[in-house]
Amino acid sequence: MTTYVMLINWTDQGVKAVRESPSRLDAARKLLAEMGGSFKEFYLTMGEYDMVVIGEASDDAVMARFALNLAMKGNVRTRTLKAFPEAAYREIINSLG
What we know:
Blueprint: E1 2-10, H1 12-16, H2 21-34, E2 38-44, E3 51-57, H3 60-73, E4 76-83, H4 86-94
Antiparallel strand pairs: 1-3, 1-4, 2-3
């Protein structure tokens, strides 16, 4: 499984219905699970982003479909980063020669 860091901001629509956000989070978690992925961690954050999700998916296409599904609902906008664990980081750096 590949790890992804998803940085999330509420849209105007999403923040107007912020009280419904926990149920939307539950629905998002279920959707990703149905797609074969999972939420590893979720954080409400302060600063540039409203929320951060650390998630896993089998490949980039699954995570792209998940992000697009979220965007289509209109409550959030996302930025998704592919994350390499330390072992992969070391392998990548060592391959530089």
